[in-house]
Give the backbone structure.
Amino acid sequence: MTAPEPASGVLERFAAYLSGELGRSPHTVRGYLADLRSLLIHLDEHGHTPADLDVPLVRAWLSTARARGASRSTVARRVAAVRALTRYLHREGVLATDPGPRLATPAQQRSLPAVLQEEQVGAALSAAAPESPVELRRHAVVELLYATGVRVAELCALDLADLDRSRDTVRVLGKGDRERTVPVGAPALEALDAWITGGRPELTVPATGANNGSALFLGARGRRLGVRQAREDVHAHLRAAGLDSAPHGLRHSAATHLLNGGADLRSVQEFLGHSSPRSTQIYTHVSVDRLRSAYQQAHPRA
């Protein structure tokens, strides 16, 4: 009888499958592997191997996570990771049947996103004129995030060639390699011009082994701006204006302000790069919530 493959070998092959065949991002692969290492430790502690995976074993592992205070979103993420693994193991013949479809995903409690007021964003973006290359980059990053509603990872992946000044748009490669074209407003274009002409050249230095001459935003040592640094840019710029928000807060704010200004839901869906209108629907809740508040304050019969 053939000895079962070590759990580490299973994860290595699974990681190659995720990135190679399914094209999952490095971030997704890392997240799945972190969760699944916990699962494999649980199996080993109870005398089991990946070949023994079934619904009761997975539920017992998830129950342990819930008992330790794991949130619904964490449990849902773990269920997604396990489903991907069991589907793969079934395909490879390690599991006779795939228990994944019988694993229920906990219902998500979707909270309304934190949204900055239009006046707050305007004040933050009208602060003292940036002077240093880093300040120019921070200003351009915040302006572009709010102007386009792009995700911070999408912003970091932008190249100079993605900015089309003839149409005042930017080409964005989003989730699932879906490409979309997003309009860019005049203030953001001005901030980008200032960065490209006055800031970017100062940070452009030879980066050994890195071909980042095409990147729109540069970070340390002339390399493409990373997601972590972009987040820090946003926090630093908004803190200077007395605000506490994050890149995704700017995305939420941009979508909500568009709807408040009269944009239809379908246009906002395309603007954000959502594959389903259900993902965009939450922003109408924000607008309705504000409308209700205004109604209660202003209507004589509220």
The first strand starts at residue 163 and ends at 164. The beta strands are 163-164, 169-173, 179-183.
